[in-house]
Specification:
With 320 residues, this protein is mainly beta. It has a domain of 204 residues. Helix content is 10%, strand content 36%. It comes from Rotaria magnacalcarata. It is found in: Endomembrane system. It holds the Pfam family Syja_N. GO terms for molecular function: phosphatidylinositol-3,5-bisphosphate 5-phosphatase activity.
């Protein structure tokens, strides 16, 4: 092995997704921001019990992709057809109930903040696609109940993501990782696309990644955080300054305050939130040349075992 291989941090290069459907499979086409490079996932629809995904290892140009899709359309014209199912901005993950797997995707987003040249988005709308083909689906009477419970979760309320910035880590950590790659090392042989591990307790969709984590490259995994992200542009002595607030909620011991308090046997506490205040010069977009300052606070419940019987609620006497 050579000693001049460098880890270059890269999160998710794919920002535009189009899902096509055939009788036997879903074809997920992912494109980069400029739509000049494409990758493909093939998801089997003929197995109700397991999720089978094949990642095409070839990177297609736009012309090659059109030619490939044309070939697939011709080959499926007599066996169920070939059609565009949905356009989306990312795959949140996969979940299984009693009738097979479902794929949850982001269909609408809005930009809420920028940190240097990194854009941060808020989820505005989602959709859920059933993977299993209707011809082989075995109907279960309780499936609707579980689907309704999942649909009651509002994914448009406080869920954020970024393709190029790791929202699960603090600014200090992200800057340290970036500074490990200096400009001189980029002229040598280096490993492009190494992805650093996120802080798992702030990855809200960690469970939704379990079924695909071993089947696809990590560049397909989009990390979603739950909390609040706000940004304001301030004018300080005729200088534009961005004030950014990032609040990350932990998903390890989450729940309402009445049901979750104290800590659990794994060391996680209830209502844990990491709050980060960031100030940076808005006149420069480069993280390496601009000026930043960050202040991080961590709060949570008292790390002690706590329980409460909901049936033993005292009833105060009614006084006239």
């Amino acid at each position: 092995m050579t000693s001049n291989i460098v880890e270059f941090p890269l999160l998710n290069p794919w920002q535009h997704f189009t899902i096509y459907g055939t009788h036997n499979r879903y074809i997920v086409v992912a494109m980069n921001k400029s739509r000049s490079k494409c990758r493909i996932l093939k998801i089997d629809r003929m197995d109700q019990k397991e999720l089978n995904i094949i990642e095409d290892q070839h990177e297609y140009s736009h012309g090659e992709l059109r030619q490939l899709l044309g070939t697939i359309e011709v080959s499926n014209s007599r066996v169920g057809g070939f059609s565009k199912t949905i356009h989306c901005h990312g795959i949140i993950g996969f979940i299984k109930f009693l009738e097979g797997y479902y794929m949850i995707v982001i269909t609408r987003r809005s930009q809420v903040a920028r940190i240097g040249y990194h854009r941060i988005y808020k989820i505005e709308e989602t959709a859920m696609l059933s993977i299993t083909n209707e011809d082989i689906r075995k109907v279960h009477p309780d499936e609707t109940k579980y689907l309704r419970a999942l649909q009651n979760l509002d994914l448009t309320n406080g869920f954020y993501f970024s393709y190029t910035y790791d929202l699960t880590h603090t600014l200090q950590y992200n800057l340290m990782e970036q500074n490990n790659v200096n400009s001189d090392s980029l002229n040598e042989n280096f490993c492009w696309g190494t992805r650093y591990q996120p802080t798992s307790k702030y990855v809200w969709n960690e469970y939704l990644h379990e079924s695909i984590r071993s089947q696809v490259h990590p560049r397909w995994l989009l990390f979603i955080v739950h909390g609040v992200i706000l940004q304001y542009n301030l004018n300080v002595f005729c200088r534009s300054i961005y004030l950014t607030l990032i609040c990350r909620r932990s998903q390890k011991f989450s729940g309402t305050r009445f049901l979750k308090r104290g800590g659990n046997c794994k060391g996680f506490v209830a209502n844990e939130v990491e709050t980060e205040h960031i100030l940076h010069d808005a006149s420069l977009s480069s993280l390496g040349k601009s000026h930043f300052t960050s202040y991080v606070q961590l709060r949570g419940s008292v790390p002690a075992f706590w329980s409460q019987d909901p049936k033993q609620v005292p009833k105060p006497p009614i006084a006239s």
